[in-house]
Amino acid sequence: MAAVSDATVEMVPAVPAASNAVVEAARRLRCPGCRLDQRKAEREGVFPYKELFLIWLVTLCSSA
User: Which of 2, 19, 40, 50 has its CA 20 to 30 A from that of 29?
Assistant: First the structure.
């Protein structure tokens, strides 16, 4: 294997503070727990009929 010289290694520039907030927001979008908490906050007091129907449909189809 060839050794990597210092000339070929590139330094990554520091990330500004404003883009840190964007990176953190993008990270939260991919976090399943954060998405679940957001969904709970948006749909507080609403019964999840759609999810219940989908679970019932999958159970019905798999038992047939």
Answer: 50
